[in-house]
Amino acid sequence: MGTSRVRRWRGIAAALCVVLLAGSSAGCIGGPDPPEPEPEPPAAFALLEAFSTRMLAEGAPAVLIAARNGTTTWTHAAGVRSLDSGEPATVSDPVRVGGITESFIAASVMRLVAEGRLDLDSQASRYLPEFGSVLHPPGPVSVRQLLTHESGIPDFTVPLLASGSWAETMNRPLSLEQQLALAATVPWDGRLARIFDYSRTNYAALALIVERLRGEGIEEVLAADIARPLGLQATRMGGPPPTGMVHGYVTLEGRRTDASMPAWQAESPSTGAVSTVEEVNTFYAELLQGRLLPPDSVTAMKGGYSQYYGFALRRWNNTCNNRFYYGLPGDTDGYGMITMTSEDGRSQLAISVAYPPAPPTLEANPLIHEMQDVAQEALNSLC
Questions:
Q1: Is-contact 333 262, C-beta < 8 A?
Q2: What is the CA 12 to chain-centroid distance, rounded?
Q3: Residue 6: inside a domain
Q4: What is the CATH number of the domain that holds 171?
Q5: Is residue 330 in a domain?
Q6: pTM of the model
Q7: 140 to each of 110, 112, 136, 143, how far by Cα in Å?
Q8: Is residue 157 part of a domain?
Q9: Who contacts 334 (Cβ-Cβ below 8 Å, separation ≥6)?
Q10: pLDDT digits over 63-86, tens only?
Q11: What is the Cα–Cα distance from 217 to 238, expressed in whole angstroms?
Q12: Which region is the signal sequence (predicted)?
């Protein structure tokens, strides 16, 4: 049901017969020694395959995994692209990446900072005048606070999902401006400002700032800043479902419902991007190795040493070198993804699961926490 491949150096020692020439006689002494047994795959790969097998047994339509450790790469694809077609999934199939979209947005923000066109400590209203007039924050809000989810801004998805059933709201297109307007209908609790309090509206505001400064839609900006420079063919926001996409599902009133391309997420800078596990790995490797942004911008994105969350980069302990892995969990209706990359970009793992269909909720799917644990254990076992 699934396929895996390992590309690695394999030394298979074979004994060769020794030809002894003595006078007019020659012979081969003894037969060839039996070949050494092929080495067992690393425990990390066995752990990941076992996780995949269990997810499929629990009803997940597909599990896609891409790992790298130095020059060793390993990929795994199991399940189907669609429960209707039954076509086998492949590791290069596009999936929804959920919250990993925020890393793409943050990279575009930091590109503007590197160009001197955006100041992280300036107020958001300097670049987005309606930020104050529409949202009425209880005090100044900086661009930096939006990046770190420390603004206290209400999450627009709360009133969105309260406005109708999931089936109704999922197919309602929602512009960035409409996302801010929805957030404005929720009272702003000033006490939450300046501590981490996740709200998707932070990145809606950041995407609008990027659009105003670039003069292009956020989809075009991400293509210009990330997809084209890195040669990412599947990574994008908006548009129709890409060919070969893995479909995710939710359960509504006991019935399975396709959740692969909900209209309201098409312009969601927090959850709207589509990519592949391999392309996500490429993005984070290029980012952390300083080939996408200047080194000081990458350092800023990582956050302070005592912070576990910087600018759309979360970190986990890397016990191989007492440093950190960086990446993000991506959780959205029907899909979960976890991606971790070592600081030097040499060790990476991305796991995508089309979740077993379940009722949609604003709360994170519990499987995303298990995926993080599995990913961290697998990476740390490779050293």
A1: yes
A2: 37
A3: no
A4: 3.40.710.10
A5: yes
A6: 0.89
A7: 21, 21, 10, 10
A8: yes
A9: 96, 247, 248, 249, 250, 259, 260, 354, 355, 357
A10: 999 999 999 999 999 999 999 999
A11: 10
A12: 1-26
- State the alpha helices, DSSP H only, in the chain: 43-57, 101-114, 124-127, 130-135, 143-147, 157-162, 166-170, 176-183, 201-214, 218-222, 228-230, 277-288, 295-302, 366-380
Enclosing domain of residue 87:
42-380
**For residue 19, what pLDDT is reported?**
33
What's the number of domains the chain is made of? Answer: 1
Q: How far apart are CA 19 and CA 26, in angstroms?
A: 7
Q: 3-state secondary structure string, 69-101?
A: ECCEEEEEEEEECCCCCCCECCCCCCEECHHHH
The string over 50-79, giving b where at least 16 C-beta atoms fall within 10 Å of a residue's C-beta and e elsewhere, is: ebbeebbeeebbbbbbbbbbeebbbbbbbb
Which neighbouring-strand residues pair with 332?
335
Judge residue 179's burial from the number of C-beta atoms within 10 Å of its C-beta, 0-12 exposed, 13-18 middle, 19 or more buried: buried
* Stretch (H or E) spanning 64: strand 62-69
The Cα–Cα gap between 182 and 192 comes to 19
Q: Which of 300, 277, 276, 306 is nearest to 288 (CA)?
A: 300
Q: What is the mean pLDDT of residues 307-323?
A: 93
Mean pLDDT calculated for residue range 208-226: 97
Burial 334-346 (b: 16+ CB within 10 A, else e): bbbbbbbbbbebe
Residue 70 zone, left/alpha/beta (φ > 0; ψ -120 to 50; rest): left
How far apart, in whole angstroms, are the C-alpha atoms of residue 194 and residue 144? Answer: 10
Using one digit for the tens of pLDDT, what is the confidence trace for 34-63? 666 555 567 999 999 999 999 999 999 999
Whether residue 79 is contained in a domain is answered as yes
Complete DSSP assignment for 89-157: P-TT--EE-GGGHHHHHHHHHHHHHHTTS--TTSBHHHH-THHHHHH--SS--BHHHHHTT-S-PPPTH
Q: How many CB atoms lie within 10 A of CB 121?
A: 8
Query: How many residues make up the chain in this entry?
Result: 383
